[in-house]
Amino acid sequence: MTFENRRIVGIEDIKALSVECNNCKVRLTYSPDEAVKIPPNCPNQSCNVEWHTLDMYAGNETKRPVLLKLMASIMEIRHRLLNSDAEKPQQQVGFRLLLEFDETN
Ligand SMILES: [Zn+2]
User: Fold this and answer.
1) What pLDDT does 37 receive?
2) Distance 2 CA to ligand 1 centre (A)
3) Does the pLDDT at position 100 exceed 90?
4) Is the pLDDT of residue 60 over 90?
5) Distance from the alpha carbon of residue 17 to the mean position of ligand 1, in angstroms
6) Total of domains in the chain
7) How far away, in angstroms, is 41 Cα from ligand 1 center?
8) Is 1 part of a structural domain of the chain?
9) What is the mean pLDDT of the chain?
10) CA of 50 to the centre of ligand 1 (A)
11) How close is the Cα of 76 to the center of ligand 1, in Å?
12) Taking the CB of residue 72, how many other CB atoms lie within 10 A of it?
């Protein structure tokens, strides 16, 4: 008999959001409950590669990069899950989003 161990977590279980530069691999880590402001360029001065050209919270919503939309959505979902006065996301759609990962040892 074979067993596979998997870890299943909800959006509310996220402890941090990190972004990693494609070029130099420097990372910035944010609280998932803060309004994340991703700098337009890599903060590593010896790299400084462009990360994005749009303001995360302004401009044309349809042109905003999907990764920035995802980060903003995670913050909004967590706010609703953790705020007792807010309508919970699973009350809006009738399900809870769970993320599944392989268990690592
Ligand atoms: Zn970089």
Assistant:
1) 81
2) 42
3) yes
4) no
5) 17
6) 1
7) 8
8) no
9) 85
10) 8
11) 28
12) 15
